[in-house]
Amino acid sequence: MLELALSENPLEAAVGVATANALSHMLSDLKPENFPVSKTDILDLIKPEDKVAMVGYFGPLVPRILKITDKLTVLEKREIDDPKTRTLPSEKAGDVLPASDVIILSASTLANKTFDELLLFRGAAREVVLLGPSAPLYPAPFFSRGITAIMGTRIIDPLTMLTVVSEAGGTKKLHKCCGEKVAFRKNEQKEK
């Protein structure tokens, strides 16, 4: 199942990424000392002068970022109706990302096969964050590729998670009913 993460079929790739996530949960349960969790919140990484690029629309996060900086650009495949947010088609990533100080990548970029290409455009960004409930909780391979933080969700009640997902409950409901936010910061990891 893990090899499905490399599939060109988006559904198969999503299953493969989910399998990798399940394995990473098992590894962190077996050796928690190898997975030091950070207390850092995504907003802690953003400064008022920062240009922030968000690949994938995180609706609840947008107004919180705009309270810190008005230099936010959202790159999204679908049309977003939010007059306060500068939204561009995701095809503009090559123009926007190299000039950004903070880049927030949806973990969905792993399943939809845009992750590698987007990393090529990171320029001199101070922070490159992989964010979302499907973010793998095994940070080392992502840190070695230039990701500075991974912020995802650890599922603590898998049966309830299945119900939440089947009802299209969303991230907020996942955190409320069956999961907890988990963050890893590259500069907080011990060298091995």
Explain what the structure shows.
This protein has 192 residues and is an alpha/beta fold. 32% of the residues lie in helices and 19% in strands. The protein is built from eight helices and seven strands. The chain has helices at 10-30, 62-66, 93-96, 108-111, 115-120, 140-143, 158-166, 170-177, and strands spanning 52-55, 72-76, 86-89, 102-106, 127-131, 149-155, 179-185. A seven-stranded mixed β-sheet has the order 3-2-1-4-5-6-7. Helix 7 (158-166) packs antiparallel against helix 8. The longest helix has 21 residues, at 10-30.
Summarize the structure.
The chain has one domain (38-188): Rossmann fold.
Q: What's the helix and strand layout?
A:
Elements (H helix, E strand, L loop, with lengths): L9 H21 L21 E4 L6 H5 L5 E5 L9 E4 L3 H4 L5 E5 L1 H4 L3 H6 L6 E5 L8 H4 L5 E7 L2 H9 L3 H8 L1 E7 L7
Helix pairs in contact: 7-8
Features:
single chain; 192 residues; alpha/beta; Rossmann fold; 7-stranded mixed β-sheet
Global mean pLDDT: 86
- The assigned CATH architecture is 3-Layer(aba) Sandwich
Sketch the topology as an H/E string, one letter per element. Answer: HEHEEHEHHEHEHHE
What is the top-level CATH class?
A: Alpha Beta
User: Mind telling me the C-alpha Rg?
Assistant: 16 Å
Tally of discrete structural domains? 1
User: How many helix segments?
Assistant: 8
CATH topology: Rossmann fold
Question: Structural class of the secondary elements?
Answer: alpha/beta
Q: Could you describe the largest sheet, including whether it forms a barrel?
A: 7 strands, mixed
Instruction: Report the principal-axis shape.
Output: globular
Strand percent estimate:
15-25%
**Uncertain segments of ≥5 residues (pLDDT<50)?**
none
Strand order of the largest sheet: 3-2-1-4-5-6-7
